[in-house]
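Re-running the complex after MR caught last week's input typo. The corrected sequence lines follow. Everything else is unchanged.
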Amino acid sequence: MRGIKELAMNRNTYSKVIDFMLFLIIFLFPLFDSNEYHLDVAVIIGIYCIINIGLNLLLGNTGQISIGQAAFFGIGAYCSAVLTTNLHLTFWLSICFAAILTATLGISVGLTSLKLRGHYLAMATLGFGIIASTVYVEWTELTGGTSGFLNIPAPSIFGFQLDNEFKYYYLVWAFVLLVFISTQHLINSRIGRALQAIHEREITCGAMGINPAKYKLKIFTLSAAYAGIAGALFAGFQNYISPESFSVYSSIIFLCMIVIGGLGSVWGSIIGTVILSIFPEFIRAVASSEFISPQIKAILNEHSYHLIAYGFFVLIIIVFLPEGIVGGVKRLEAKAYEWLHSKQIVIE
Amino acid sequence: MALLKTRDLVKNFGGIRAVNLLNLTMEEGEIRSLIGPNGAGKTTVFNLISGILQPNSGTIDFQGVYLNKLRPHERCQLGIGRTFQTPHMFSRMNVLENIMLGCHSWTGTEIFENVWRLPKARREEDDIVRTSEEIISFLELSEEKDNIANSLPFGKQKMVAIGRALASKPKLLLLDEPCAGLNESETEWLCEILLKIRKKGINVFLIEHDMGLVMKVSDTIVVVDYGKKIAEGTPAEIVENERVISAYLGSP
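Corrected-run output:
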């Protein structure tokens, strides 16, 4: 019995070591790969990670779906763009305002829609996403409409110019680290347990002194604020933004990312985001490599077959790893752990 | 002041009157049983007291607080803990976490404190763990502590459910058929636990079909049939009561 407890303790520290190592890899990455295009993709991945950690907290932990996450992302982006370009506020302040604005909107959308469950909640948030993407296109004086919002100034923080991908990479991933740690803390607290309980049995929660409506609203607001912060970072990085980035299609991709990574796991959000962001790039690279004959290349480019491959990949993962990649790894780990343990008993 | 008082409580389900003008008064320091034939409306009474259902008319008072307007979690925070007929375990949590969940009603740190693990949140988490560990040793669940609650045998799951309700530090504990599905030795053990719980100053109100247990632990018994109270008294009085006998066995 004592042996098991000690091992369990070790397992806890060991998962912390893994967290540390993975973040070390993330923070050392730009020192080894200074390819601008790669860094560009990595910055966008970081921004998506912030959204997806919030979305996973909402869907994976609390069990409430949102197909309007890209709308909050967009609102954060336009808010920051307008504040820094038209009103010449500092980037730092614009991030704060974007978070406050999206949180406020999150409260109002949550108050009206969180009474709904399952498919109905999905439809309500989808509706919000569609309204938001219409507003981006139609409110041309503010957003620039379909041609996009141009000439967003390069951000600087405390007089430090963030003018290249390298510097921006560290800013974004520092945010990811912050969101990662805070979400990890939250999941392992009394509130995290309450969220888990709400996910499983809402009625039993009342008998436990948990107010499901309150927590659902709070987490919805928090995830909206995360998306808003991500939006502000996106606007600062891109120098121009257009409504396409914030369409309902993006919301669905965000959902795919967390489902594939693993629901209810913070690493799941990050891994899912990384894989689904790199995969299209990978297919594009294969499609343009020299091993493929020019005729096939032409067909591939013309008909955007990479989308089919993408869909197929998503399908395969969902069929074979219903708990996502992190869930699969955990199952493997549990098996290995069991096996090791049985061996040890044999030795004893 | 009475601990719990219901006045003319009525609950209708469509055309069926599940609870019909029920008056209950429960004093401090007793174990009270609610018995009656199947479908008599016992669980409905519990659902009305704990706030899962709203009565059609009538009032419920708990220590002088008017409960009708309060939602289930608020009633739990006032000190009404309950279990359900089935254990209602949270399947992805182990026994310790299930019981820790019960501590939610008397802890108050919010998202902000927990996100940054401020000292207040840490202290509270320590309190939660300590209380839960105490309850685990009280219910002799130490060996199952780290097991997933759903993987335990049914009897143990029911114990965990009682532990979870105890973790909310209730003044009144509503137990809905705690013996259902338990074997004889487990029932006997539950008997002792109930008496110990009363000794801690927690009032117990239980629904039970196991008459052996009911007669052994109850200070008073309330009998309901078709939503109406047909008898109330000490176990000895109830056994003799003719209306109770006819409700259970049918009148000749």
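None of the earlier attempt is carried over here. The interface with chain A takes residues 50-52, 71-73, 75-77, 81-84, 88, 90-93, 97, 100-107, 109-111, 114-117, 121, 124-125, 128, 146, 164-165, 168 of chain B (CB under 8 Å). Chain B is about 40% helix and 25% strand.
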